[in-house]
Amino acid sequence: MHFEPDKGMLRDKYGRVARDVRVSLTDRCNLRCAYCMPAEGLDWLPTEDTLTDEEVVRLVRIAVELLGVEEIRFTGGEPLLRRSLEDIVAECATLRTHKGTPPPMSITTNGLGLDKRAESLVEAGISRANISLDSLTRERYAQIARRDRLHDALRGIQAAADAGMSPIKINAVAMKGINEDEVADLLAFCLDHGYHLRFIEQMPLGPAHGWRRDQLLTQQDILDRLSQRFELTPSSEPRGAAPAELWNVAESADHPAGDVGVIASVTNPFCTACDRARLTADGQMRTCLFATTETDLRTPMRDGATDEELAQIWIGATWEKQAGHGMSRPDFRPPERTMSRIGG
Ligand code: SAM
Ligand code: SF4
Ligand code: SF4
Fold this sequence. Notes:
Helix content: 25-40%
Distance between the termini: 32 Å
Bound molecules: S-adenosylmethionine, iron/sulfur cluster
């Protein structure tokens, strides 16, 4: 096989090319967000099934150097629970994409404990952060996340900004009857701090039976609420493969100008432009969040496969990537893995 990473080797039969890999470093988490995990938690992966640091770095190297991947995002579970996160990031920072530059690396985190690690993460090579924050009120945060940790999350966000991570994106899952009355307050908070807020429509990736379409707070519901307080105009920035549709927010006497995005995965999916692949903490490659099958890279790697052989398995599986999540189909079934085990 002749590898031409500049052309992108991770192509699917619909013509999409994966250039962005989401690497889950653990399935564990210190929160229990209701839309992601059952209250009692899950059985964590046995240690021997979890990829070692060397194995993670090897698969990222194959993705970047052989397969044309240009961007890496570390996620989980909660990636800050991986103690060696900085070591993994520092190793990946030595890689070079086909453009001759290190891959931009970001982290998706709930922010707990980030106050102690933001600087070391930036030093290791993390430049951007997506931090989850669904509420600004202590009781409601505790209700959604099932842990009373709002204060720690806010400290983590501030620390990421102080350490120079940029942009700071704030992810908020918008939920009917839960935090819908707070969407405008969340935006005001983000505008005041220069953060980029991204609302996410809730997807059926949490505990079984925890999602109902008629309970969904849709992109339109979110925009209707925001428009009561903010002047929004659709952004003219090309969207590319970005999952969020963006609006510019005009300056007012109460707040500076900024932007806001909505990731309308349910009502306005962006699957036709999807450029993502996912690697789970136990070494399974997933072509789609909603895939019901996955490709084991860990077993062949531990059985002695060469880099080229692993790359070939990855290429073959990517070709079969499904067209989209298929949520509107009557036979739709969510994947067995919940979001925390997939890596969002
Ligand atoms: N623990 C980290 C965090 O919360 O940012 C990283 C992993 S978490 C699975 C990644 C993202 O997925 C978070 O922004 C979270 O809000 C989002 N998420 C989890 N379950 C979801 C669901 N059912 N629908 C939509 N987004 C979800
Ligand atoms: Fe943990 Fe993130 Fe899932 Fe919340 S969304 S339970 S913080 S993995
Ligand atoms: Fe990509 Fe699958 Fe998400 Fe669609 S549902 S954007 S194909 S990962």
